[in-house]
TrEMBL record:
<feature type="transmembrane region" description="Helical">
    <location>
        <begin position="169"/>
        <end position="193"/>
    </location>
</feature>
<feature type="domain" description="EamA">
    <location>
        <begin position="144"/>
        <end position="285"/>
    </location>
</feature>
<feature type="transmembrane region" description="Helical">
    <location>
        <begin position="268"/>
        <end position="286"/>
    </location>
</feature>
<keyword id="KW-1133">Transmembrane helix</keyword>
<feature type="transmembrane region" description="Helical">
    <location>
        <begin position="26"/>
        <end position="49"/>
    </location>
</feature>
<feature type="domain" description="EamA">
    <location>
        <begin position="3"/>
        <end position="130"/>
    </location>
</feature>
<dbReference type="InterPro" id="IPR037185">
    <property type="entry name" value="EmrE-like"/>
</dbReference>
<feature type="transmembrane region" description="Helical">
    <location>
        <begin position="113"/>
        <end position="132"/>
    </location>
</feature>
<feature type="transmembrane region" description="Helical">
    <location>
        <begin position="61"/>
        <end position="82"/>
    </location>
</feature>
<dbReference type="InterPro" id="IPR000620">
    <property type="entry name" value="EamA_dom"/>
</dbReference>
<feature type="transmembrane region" description="Helical">
    <location>
        <begin position="144"/>
        <end position="163"/>
    </location>
</feature>
<feature type="transmembrane region" description="Helical">
    <location>
        <begin position="214"/>
        <end position="234"/>
    </location>
</feature>
<comment type="similarity">
    <text>Belongs to the EamA transporter family.</text>
</comment>
<feature type="transmembrane region" description="Helical">
    <location>
        <begin position="240"/>
        <end position="261"/>
    </location>
</feature>
<keyword id="KW-0812">Transmembrane</keyword>
<protein>
    <submittedName>
        <fullName>Putative integral membrane protein</fullName>
    </submittedName>
</protein>
<keyword id="KW-0472">Membrane</keyword>
Length: 287
């Protein structure tokens, strides 16, 4: 079940990243973060009320608060990077954040077998190559790489924190709700500060554009929430190292979505990377 939930996480995160990247090409990135997370808060709040998840409140929710503080900064950096560079390049670099939860897993006692260790190495290499790394070029490309690396560390930290935020399903609902409320508070404060400095929260075309994009914004927010939930379950049911690596295959999904929808052509190195990621997945799942 660990592999199943972790792979579901990859699918959800990959589609959320693709949708978020598209939205930031016409709506300010910080607005995308705040609105998508606010819509997720409304849905999660309803779930928390109907399931009685409030009874699961406890000190472990501070992990959710921590994830909520780090998450908006990571998402903002990542969405800006996606808007600057091709998704097939930026997204795989973002997966390097897997180093954080894998390191935590090893520190707390996870000991994957030799086959799984091989799978971890093959999968990480495949994910990076799936983007056809392009670290040279114009200053804009270098900026995209820097933003992506910042986002990667943030994403990895969120994975490690949210896995510790609950031990039950209803507790997970509450933890995700607290995380998203914190996301909105932190992101909203950043958006307010940006507007005060002369920035804008509205896209060209005004509120009408945001209203038209609400279904897409809701999808991005809810897919991200669902991905955090499936990852937390995967990390609780099996070795964190295995769950983290399988969950970090989402860039392959983003690259394939960019290929299918935006017609971004996959280079030979990207196709090879996708193949290696698949091999690594098989090794991890069967090791």
């Amino acid at each position: 079940m660990t592999a199943l939930f972790a792979l579901a996480t990859s699918l959800l995160w990959g589609l959320a990243d693709f949708g978020g990247g598209l939205l930031t090409r016409r709506i300010p990135a910080l607005t995308v973060v705040v609105v998508s997370q606010l819509l997720a808060v409304l849905v999660l709040g309803t779930v928390v009320l109907t399931t009685g998840a409030w009874s699961e409140a406890g000190p472990q929710l501070w992990y959710a608060v921590g994830a909520g503080v780090v998450g908006p900064a990571a998402m903002l950096a990542f969405y800006k990077a996606l808007a600057l560079g091709p998704m097939g390049v930026v997204s795989p670099l973002g997966s390097l954040g897997v180093v954080v939860p894998v390191s935590v897993g090893l520190l707390v006692g996870d000991r994957p077998g030799l086959v799984q260790f091989a799978g971890i190495g093959v999968a990480i290499l495949g994910v990076v190559l799936a983007g056809g790394p392009e670290l040279r070029g114009a200053p804009v490309q270098r900026q995209a790489v820097l933003l992506t690396l910042v986002a990667a560390f943030g994403f990895g930290s969120v994975m490690a924190l949210i896995a510790e935020a609950s031990t039950t399903v209803t507790g997970l609902f509450l933890a995700l709700f607290v995380q998203r409320v914190t996301n909105v508070l932190v992101g909203g404060a950043a958006l307010f500060a940006s507007v005060k400095r002369g920035g804008t929260a509205l896209p060209e075309g005004g509120p009408r554009v945001i209203r038209a994009a609400l279904p897409a914004l809701a999808f991005v927010g809810l897919a991200d929430v669902a991905a955090n939930g499936t990852y937390a379950i995967a990390a609780q049911q099996g070795p964190v190292t295995v769950a983290a690596v399988l969950a970090s295959l989402y860039p392959v999904v983003t690259a394939l979505a960019a290929y299918g929808v935006l017609k971004e052509r996959l280079r030979a190195i990207q196709a090879a990377g996708a193949g290696l990621a698949l091999v690594g997945t098989v090794l991890l799942a069967t090791g």
